[in-house]
Please model this.
Amino acid sequence: MVNELCETTIIDKKSVEAIKKAMIERGTADRLAETFKALGDPTRIKIIYALSKKRLCVCDLSATLGMSQSAVSHQLRILRNLKLVKFEKKGKSVYYSLDDDHILSMFEKCVEHVNEQKER
Amino acid sequence: MVNELCETTIIDKKSVEAIKKAMIERGTADRLAETFKALGDPTRIKIIYALSKKRLCVCDLSATLGMSQSAVSHQLRILRNLKLVKFEKKGKSVYYSLDDDHILSMFEKCVEHVNEQKER
DNA sequence: TGAACATATGAACAATTGTTCATATGAGAT
DNA sequence: ATCTCATATGAACAATTGTTCATATGTTCA
Model:
């Protein structure tokens, strides 16, 4: 075994073993982390918010956020790669929208959490 | 006005203006992003997952994840700062648990999203 | 009081990130 | 074809990140 750490004491060995056994796999953890990370930037949060209101092309999204087309396009790629947004080509334009309902749910849960923190 | 970008064409001016007006504030976007970012790391994902199973002290969490106490403690601070986890001192130990139900909801929605992507 | 233990934290480092600038691609219009 | 427009992408850079190592804090027990 490689992962044996002798460093720390274990207080509740039973629980540790049980949770260790049930632990999510490396790949799953990575994928979840990547997905959250993709939402972990103010620019991309604004993009998600804007797209939750309406399907938008890149140039209108740039105008909405007051950011360069390049910056927005780079960020869209990240969201695209993690399937957080989907897109449709229409002539010269490319229209983006949220990929599925989970995205908006996560967004809303996060808003609730943040608002609840404020109230305390 | 400072934020005038002349660079891009606007296709749907009405929508752009409407969404611009309804856009979330800078502070809110930052806070949301920070919260998502805090979840955007495999180590912290595993911590959240472990704590969703059971309240755990730092040393048991270290053992569960097979990581150093220091590394876990640093990550816990990030989760603590964003109120994603709460803690309780008990003798020499400090027990951590998820702060509220939104955290687990977000986690679960993300799992659903990731699983749905796999199926496609 | 002092020793042992659980946790937190500061400094340091490589690795990753978000933006800008310049340029490429690819579609529609002339 | 050529020109223009909408979008994508590569390179470069400062800024931020996660871990390790060393050390500090604070609690319990003798």
Observations:
- The helical segments of chain A are 13-22, 26-38, 42-53, 58-65, 69-81, 101-119.
